[in-house]
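Design a sequence for this backbone.
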């Protein structure tokens, strides 16, 4: 797509939602703060297992409490991933409901996203980075951890190159 060319459109369906949600969840779980948080939880799990192994013969309330900690840590990690996925799914399906048509127009100074809920004409200065997955291009807003998801099928390699050069 050349700059200021007619918008490209796609029909939103469950498969597109799944793909975009997958790309966005992967992005959310691999951000630096998320990696640090999951690394800290994993370290706590390992330390707890080591302590349980060392104090395995010790009885009492402390041993019972320690034995529940690995379960709690794993449950916290799983719940965090599930809540992230649910939040991402809700955001994407709200912005682009299944059965609707979404269009994108890459312009010289902005990218325009046209959906059932309205038109967003977003200058490239609004964004700090772009991450392109298999099903979604994720544009991170300046000063936020929030991203705007655009169906990857609507963007050519030239569009991606233009967006990257403008951000």
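Sequence:
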């Amino acid at each position: 797509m050349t700059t200021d060319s007619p918008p490209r459109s796609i029909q939103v369906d469950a498969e597109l939602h799944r793909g975009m949600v997958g790309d966005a969840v992967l992005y959310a779980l691999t951000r630096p703060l998320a990696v640090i948080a999951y690394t800290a939880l994993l370290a706590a799990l390992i330390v707890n297992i080591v302590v349980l192994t060392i104090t395995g013969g010790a009885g009492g309330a402390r041993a019972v409490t320690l034995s529940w900690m690995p379960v709690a840590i794993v449950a916290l990690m799983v719940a965090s991933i599930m809540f992230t996925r649910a939040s991402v799914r809700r955001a994407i399906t709200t912005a682009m409901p299944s059965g609707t048509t979404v269009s994108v127009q890459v312009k010289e100074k902005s990218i325009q996203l046209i959906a059932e809920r309205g038109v967003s004409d977003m200058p490239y200065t609004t964004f700090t980075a772009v991450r392109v997955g298999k099903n979604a291009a994720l544009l991170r807003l300046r000063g936020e951890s929030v991203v705007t998801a655009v169906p990857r099928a609507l963007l050519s390699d030239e569009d991606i190159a233009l967006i990257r050069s403008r951000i």
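Residues 14 and 98 are 6 Å apart (CA to CA).
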